[in-house]
């Protein structure tokens, strides 16, 4: 290469510049509502109430449903650690706007923003956010551990049986009377 400094500069420029980065990640799960419906009015009311509730809660998370079934939207929001209450409220309100923009007329959506997470669902189902305790992880871990130990025991038993058979075959070879 004739210009190594140019190559290094381009490499540094590519490494330093962020690639296409989005402010939020969306997941539109499904279900739709009609425009100007009771569900949409309840969703707007929920979008007005939930940011303030999330910001005013001590752990910066809230779950709320508005209206009556079948026109009852439900949402869970959570702000990440270290976010101020005012930034939390702004993030949740922005997540609502982004969810409506990215998932038009969608009843179920999940938005992972920079400072918060928002989950929208219709009444019977809501994606809740709660901290996972060690006991939650312990159950699944114990199941996999038990399966692993059972498999190892099975392999050990097979190996022991094969070695025992081989040693019995060597030790119990019958002498022939033709010698």
UniProtKB/TrEMBL annotation:
Q: Which Gene3D superfamilies match?
A: Gnk2 domain, C-X8-C-X2-C motif
Indicate the transmembrane segments per the record.
134-157
Q: Which residues form the signal peptide?
A: 1-23
| Stored CDD domains | Gnk2-like (cd23509)
Assigned keywords, A-Z: Membrane, Repeat, Signal, Transmembrane, Transmembrane helix
Q: Tell me which residues make up the Gnk2-homologous domain.
A: 21-125
Asked if Cell wall biogenesis/degradation is a keyword of the record, the answer is no
Superkingdom field: Eukaryota
* Any Pfam family hit: Stress-antifung
Among PANTHER family, the record links this protein to: CYSTEINE-RICH REPEAT SECRETORY PROTEIN (PTHR32099), OS07G0538300 PROTEIN (PTHR32099:SF9)
Q: What is this protein called?
A: Gnk2-homologous domain-containing protein
- The organism encoding this protein is Triticum turgidum subsp. durum (Durum wheat)
Give the classification, highest ranks. Answer: Eukaryota, Viridiplantae, Streptophyta, Embryophyta, Tracheophyta
């Amino acid at each position: 290469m004739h210009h190594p400094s140019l190559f290094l500069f381009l490499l540094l420029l590519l490494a330093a510049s962020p690639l296409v980065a989005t402010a939020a990640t969306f997941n539109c799960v499904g279900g739709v509502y009609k425009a100007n419906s009771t569900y949409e009015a309840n969703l707007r009311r929920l979008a007005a109430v939930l940011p303030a509730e999330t910001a005013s809660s001590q752990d910066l998370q809230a779950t709320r449903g508005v209206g009556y079934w079948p026109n009852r939207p439900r949402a869970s929001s959570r702000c990440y650690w270290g976010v101020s209450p005012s930034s939390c409220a702004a993030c949740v309100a922005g997540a609502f706007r982004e969810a409506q923009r990215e998932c038009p007329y969608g009843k179920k959506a999940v938005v992972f923003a920079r400072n918060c997470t928002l989950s929208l669902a219709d009444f019977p189902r809501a994606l809740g956010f709660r901290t996972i305790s060690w006991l939650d992880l312990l159950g699944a871990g114990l199941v996999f551990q038990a399966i692993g130990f059972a498999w190892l025991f099975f392999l050990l038993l097979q190996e022991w049986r094969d070695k025992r058979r081989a040693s019995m075959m060597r030790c119990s070879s019958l002498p022939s009377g033709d010698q």
